[in-house]
Amino acid sequence: MKPVTMLLLGSALAMGVLPAAAQTVPAPPPAATVHPDLWPRASWPYKADPAIEARIADLLKRMTLEEKVGQVVQGDIASLTPEDVKRYHLGSVLNGGNSAPNNDEFAPASEWLKLADRFYAASVDKSDGGVGIPVIWGTDAVHGHSNIVGATLFPHNVGLGAMHDPALMRKIAQATAAEIRATGIEWTFAPTITVPQDLRWGRAYEGYSSDPKLVAGYVTQFIEGLQGAPGSTNQLKGPYVLASTKHFLADGGTFGGQDQGDAKISETQLRDIHGTPYVSAINAGVQTVMASFSSWNGEKITGHKGLMTDVLKKRMGFGGFIVSDWNAHGQVAGCTNASCPRAINAGLDMYMAPDSWKPIWENLVKQVKSGEVPMSRLDDAVSNVLRVKLRAGLFEAGKPSSRPLSGKFDLLGSPEHRAIAREAVAKSLVLLKNNGSLLPIKAGARVLVAGDGADDVARQSGGWTLTWQGTGIDPKYFPGATSIYQGIDAAAKAAGGSATLSADGSFTGAKPDAAIVVFGETPYAEFQGDIKTLQLRPELRQPIETMKKLKAQGIPVVAVMLTGRPLFVNAAINAADAFVVAWLPGSEGAGIADVLLKDRSGKAKRDFTGTLSFAWPATADATGPTQFPLGYGLTGAARTTVPALSEDPKVAEVDAGDVFMDKGLPATAWSLEVGGAGTGGNTRITTVPAQSGGGRVKVTATDHGVQEGARRFVVDGTGPAQIVLSTQSPVDLTRQTNGDVMLVSTMRVDAAPTRPVTLSLRSGPGNGQVALGRMEPLGVGQWKTLGVPLKCFGGNVNMGKVDTPFVLATDGALSVSVARVALGTTADTGRGTAAKRWWRGGARIR
Predict the structure, then answer these.
(1) Catalytic residue ranges
(2) From residue 5, how far is each of 721, 744, 759, 843 by CA, in Å?
(3) Count of beta carbons in the 10 Å neighbourhood of residue 824
């Protein structure tokens, strides 16, 4: 196989989408055509209210086009101001996973409430002659009000599904709603009612179960806990918030478990697996539904009229409004982040345009004026948004700080709410193995607590915790929370024993009576958590060696696994005498001690009652056999002897390491994007063929080594373009930079560029750039490997926090194919004078 050189066309790759007006949108493929009559009908609990409909008609009559467009646009608080809300009449704001008041992710609750008041005041300001419609604020309170310091953090959904306790779900929702209301926010993007079918998906932990019936059984209780009884109105007079089920539809059914990918399934599978929970949601009166990033048989859901309008609204009777996911409209064929008439024409009622809200607003005004978006469709979308606001009593609620529960910050992490969470933790634990009747551990025992996850609240809480990824959080931002070790320590002492924390399992003095080793996944969110095989990353497996070491010393070992999904960990199961799946329990680690240790009465506070809501794999192959079936779980009284399990994963070890892209696909935790110099931002490429920037960049698959083992980027030269590889979890490349490590790209120049090309590496705003000229040394039509020493990217880049290691950009026309981007030292030395002239920093090619 010939070596290749990869070139990141920064602007080309970032351009993944183009204005709909500039392109003829092809008819959807037959595989993505729905047949509404095949779908079930639901019972929407709200009858038409003549008073509300009269108010909507009156508002529509008085609203300008600009005011109407504002109601269907939602921006992120990090990218707009209250003044923007007033000027553009925006109907909604949200805080993304990393957005917060004053750009302080750890801002106190009081600052959230102050900002809510400012946005509200701006929205109802009529000094410019507008109608002054109150803004609504949405937040991802997905396991408690998890953006707020001090809030109760409940177990993630993967754990709640193992409880099999719908009644407790209602209590969790009620507690969450109260804490949200304390900060003045009215709307949560929850519950997630996805039905994950492939655990390689980075959002699998947001699903309750792979069983649609179990998910459907939870939906009613949780929505009623958030919103009140079906058909209830004036939620803002009480302790409620508006709910949003997500993500419609089949985000948990994508091929290979790829986030934002394609569900290649039949319509009956789409209906019976992924559509089933939506019947319960509509029956419960869920006020909003979030459309998915993902596709069904090649067509993006956010642009799918058949699913959003014909099925969800007409056939199933949903009478709230549909909001998109974060810039998801930019992935719809014929669209960009800045412009997507196809989405609203398909039935979308509100664009979540976090950083692209202004161009979306500007373009939508033009598109309605031109008739590309019919005024009737805009009026319908605005009516749907207004109807939800009027039902909730938003117009009469007053400023957020004046509403019930507002400012009652003692609700955040209150003893009552923590008790609910602690109960949920205990009930979610699943016991897979309990050889020798080790659990619960006897009262008075000397307990050694080991493992890298034992004393880390952030680790046990997972993603969507204070920050989007839930990483890099100082323990001080978890006031009142209890780590797993702290819970065990308190329980052991109360029972007359002791607990000692030792991450590596070392100890002095008397041999412990038992060791509890806490290990597992580290936090992640969304596509950052996508994996290729069902196994822990190698650097997370050290605690398994600790288990083996302790067992060799004759110490009984209890393994406690923190994870967002079942994984192949047979080595750990074999090494432990008892194996407990704790999932991602949240802030109340004491709930684990309630089940693991006996108190002075000789009994544990709670028994093991949780059972698997996902099957547990026997290998690391996601399509392989099952080790423990759906519904498996031992009680504390059960005594089983689990024989030694095979430790053969049956698949090759997959570790991205220093690989950013391979076989044309971004590595785990990395994103491939294309974009230009426009205002809409970059577009993530998840499927091909794709195009971006008004058609300026087209992305297709091409062969290299294997079929479709590379991506081809064709830039037409009518404007700036770039191809980008980026991550939300910056990597430390200081060690590699100090050596002779290079950024090595495998690529083929298919047509010589007409203008100079640059290759850049970035860390936040820091940008290091190398000029490639017109890529003459690579030639045309040959796969080559291009190596650039990291030190050549300049001194204004923080190599300790590299988030974008590859940006290939040009202002001209270019056609290039890219197969692989990684760090390495294997490129040819390139001693020829041509290579030296090409890059002053010392590029190497072969």
Answers:
(1) 325, 526
(2) 19, 7, 12, 12
(3) 16
Average pLDDT rounded to a whole number, residues 421-434: 97
- Of 176, 657, 116, 625, which Cα lies nearest the Cα of 397? 116
Mean pLDDT of 324-337: 94
Q: For the chain, how many residues are written?
A: 846
Q: Residues 759, 765, 770, CA angle at the centre, nearest 5°? A: 20
pLDDT tens digits, 560-593? 999 999 999 999 999 999 999 999 999 999 999 9
The whole-angstrom separation of Cα 661 and Cα 667 is 5
- Could you count the other beta carbons within 10 Å of the beta carbon of residue 416? 11
Contact 413, 480 (CB under 8 A): yes
What are the φ/ψ torsions at residue 776 (nearest 5 degrees)?
-55, -45
In this predicted structure, the answer to whether residue 525 has a pLDDT above a threshold of 50 is yes
Q: Which residue has the tokens 């602007």?
A: 11
What's at 370, amino acid-wise? S
Of 744, 751, 739, which is closest to residue 725 (Cα–Cα)? 744
Mean pLDDT value across residues 691-705: 84
SS3 label, residue 682? coil
Give pLDDT, residue 733: 87
Range of lowest pLDDT (278-282, 579-583, 714-718) = 714-718
- Residue 643 CB partners (closer than 8 Å, separation 6+): none
Alpha carbons 575 and 556: distance in angstroms, whole number: 10
Side-chain-side CA neighbours of residue 515 (13 Å) = 32
Quote the pLDDT of residue 683.
Answer: 83
Cβ-contact 411, 182 below 8 angstroms: yes
Q: With beta carbons less than 8 A apart as the criterion, state whether 537 and 471 touch.
A: no
CB proximity list for 809: less than 8 A, separation 6 or greater: 9, 10, 11, 12, 720, 721, 722, 723, 757, 758, 759, 760
Write out the two tokens for 676: 């230009």
Question: What integer is the mean pLDDT of 58-73?
Answer: 98
Supply the pLDDT for residue 654: 63
Nearest to 699 by CA among 710, 708, 711, 709: 711
pLDDT reading at 21 higher than 70: no
Determine the 3-state secondary structure of 605 from DSSP: coil
The rounded distance, in Å, linking the Cα atoms of 70 and 133 is: 10
Strand duo 321-323 + 514-520: pairing: unpaired
**Residue bearing tokens 């001690």:** 593
The CA radius of gyration of the chain, in Å to the nearest whole number, is: 27
Name the H helices within 23-81: 50-62, 65-71
Quote the crossing angle between the two packed helices 357-370 and 375-392, to the nearest 10°: 130
As a whole number, the mean pLDDT across the chain is: 91
Distance CA 567, CA 579 (A): 13
What are the residues whose beta carbons fall under 8 Å from the beta carbon of 263, sequence distance 6 or more? 250, 251, 253, 254, 255, 270, 274, 294, 295, 296, 297
Tell which residue, 790, 784, 794, has the closest CA to residue 817: 784
Burial class (CB in 10 A: 0-12, 13-18, 19+), 663: middle
pLDDT tens digits, 395-408: 999 999 999 999 99
Look-up: residue for tokens 């398994």? 544
pLDDT-based confidence at residue 141 (cuts at 50, 70, 90): very high
Label residue 232 exposed, middle or buried (CB < 10 Å: 0-12, 13-18, 19+): middle
**Res. 181: pLDDT tops 90:** yes
The mean pLDDT value for 280-300 works out to 97
Burial tier of 420 (Cβ tally within 10 Å: 0-12, 13-18, 19+): buried
Whose tokens are 């960049």? That residue is 697
Confirm if 754 and 14 have CB atoms less than 8 A apart.
Answer: no
How do strand 804-810 and strand 721-726 relate by DSSP bridges?
Answer: antiparallel
The values of phi and psi at residue 43, to 5°, are -115, 90
Full DSSP string of 685-722: --SSSEEETTTTEEEEEEEESEEEEEEEEEEESSS-EE
Give the residue from 441, 426, 359, 370 showing the smallest Cα distance to 168: 426
